[in-house]
Design goal:
There is one protein chain. This protein is an alpha/beta fold and 335 residues long. The protein has 2 domains: 219 residues, Spore Coat Polysaccharide Biosynthesis Protein SpsA, Chain A (Alpha-Beta Complex); 69 residues. 46% of the residues lie in helices and 17% in strands. The protein has 10 helices and 9 strands. Strand 1, helix 1 and strand 2 form a beta-alpha-beta unit. The radius of gyration is 25 Å and the shape is elongated.
């Protein structure tokens, strides 16, 4: 699969897969065709994120004829972000391309991305969604609100951003130094601040099957993205407390004045309304604090990001069972 000149840069393509067995062969064929146009040497690193279908069997089959194919199988579904970590920790190229395996990140765009990298001198070449393709109204609205909130809170412009991007070796190594377990890949990439250029693309339809991103998973990723890149919600709790304190002081003064003036009125409805408002604010505040405590709890446990059960070696394409206790640790080097 590696057809480039021995002096050409090595390009690693990292792809997390979940239930993509029906089109892995087609994906790899398209990748090979696109990568050969770049003039680079290349390797493909596939991460099977605990797929219950035949994804891993299809990968093993393809590895017999693709000597530069490397792959790992995670013990269960750890999620796309952590599967990306597993792939990035094994990528050894001078540049690393990250893309999805469902076909919505078109392999045909790779020559354009690599050329942009060479010509611009940028550290990151990011695919930006010019058109989001077929998506439900609720999905589009949710994405709009998420990025509007995150852009405002974090100060990073992520509208239209995707995980389809090329990173130089310097960027990839810097990204790997960030060891948090609450991973938000595109936000962490933007946070590093390296020189970035954009390549617009229209999102095509999936090759097959349905997206594994349920509303719950999207909501969870949105919470991780917001709470890991901004402490503003915590400041909001403090601000709201100050506002209500000022309001309570004013209301108390008014109530005391009416009592002393002998004009106190029955305020049952007002009391009930205030209790509902304050009670709701307290519950929301506790929820916000709980989200941050959950992030801290997950970090301090010190568990591995993922666990690998099998891997396919670069040299011979053989499947290897990893010994018990494998923690999916980062390789010592990228030689």
């Amino acid at each position: 699969m590696d057809d480039g000149s021995p002096t050409a840069p090595l390009m690693s393509v990292v792809i997390p897969l979940y239930n993509e067995g029906s089109h892995v062969s087609e994906l790899l064929l398209d990748l090979k065709s696109a990568l050969q146009q770049t003039g680079c040497r290349f390797e493909v690193v596939l991460v099977d994120d605990g797929s219950p279908d035949d994804t891993w069997e299809r990968i093993k089959h393809e590895a017999r004829s693709l000597p530069s194919l490397r792959a790992v199988r995670l013990s269960r579904n750890f999620g796309k972000e952590l599967a990306l970590c597993a792939g990035l920790e094994r990528a050894r190229g001078d540049a690393v391309v990250v893309m999805d395996g469902d076909g919505q990140h078109p392999p045909s765009l790779l020559p354009v991305i690599v050329e942009k990298w060479h010509s611009s001198g940028a550290d990151i070449v990011q695919g930006v969604k010019a058109r989001r393709g077929r998506e439900s109204l609720t999905g589009k609205l949710g994405a709009f609100l998420f990025y509007a909130i995150l852009n405002r809170l974090s100060g990073f412009e992520l509208k239209g951003a995707s995980d389809f991007k090329l990173m130089s070796r310097k960027v990839a190594d810097t990204w790997l130094e960030m060891r948090e377990r609450n991973v938000f890949f595109r936000g962490m990439t933007a946070w590093m601040g390296f020189k970035t250029v954009q390549v617009p693309f229209a999102v095509p339809a999936r090759r097959a099957g349905k997206s594994g991103w349920s509303y719950f998973k999207r909501w969870k990723l949105a919470l991780i993205g917001i709470t890991t890149f901004s402490s503003f919600p915590l400041h909001f709790v403090t601000f709201a407390g100050i506002v209500f304190f000022i309001f309570a002081v004013g209301l108390g003064i008014q109530t005391l004045y009416l009592k002393l003036a002998g004009r106190a009125l029955t305020g049952f409805a007002t009391v009930i309304l205030l209790e509902l408002i304050i009670g709701s604010l307290l519950m929301i505040s506790l929820g916000i604090i709980g989200e941050y405590l959950a992030r801290i709890y997950e970090e301090v446990k010190g568990r591995p990001r993922y666990i690998v059960t099998e891997s396919i070696d670069l040299a011979d394409g053989k499947t290897r069972l990893l010994p018990p206790g494998n923690r999916g640790a980062r390789p010592a080097n990228h030689d």
